[in-house]
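User: Please fill in residues for this 73-position structure.
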């Protein structure tokens, strides 16, 4: 929502949600206590939201999921 509101992406939040809902190979992961426990063990100087993204990826990857993300340099 934030990046759509700030104009950092070219599509609206609503269009993003629509595309996610229409895509069969995309899953939104809920923030669980297990993911918070993984985040607590990450020893890196990161902002909270970044640490939660990494923790979710690590947790889901352990379950066999393939995590793909892009990082702007």
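Assistant: Residues filled in for all 73 positions:
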């Amino acid at each position: 929502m934030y990046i759509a509101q700030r104009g950092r992406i070219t599509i609206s939040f609503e269009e993003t949600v629509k595309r996610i809902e229409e895509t069969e190979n995309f899953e939104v992961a809920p923030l669980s206590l297990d993911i918070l426990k993984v985040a607590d063990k990450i020893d890196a100087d990161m902002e909270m939201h970044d640490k939660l993204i990494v923790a979710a990826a690590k947790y889901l990857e352990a379950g066999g999921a393939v995590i793909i993300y892009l990082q702007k340099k």
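For context: The chain has four helices and no strands.
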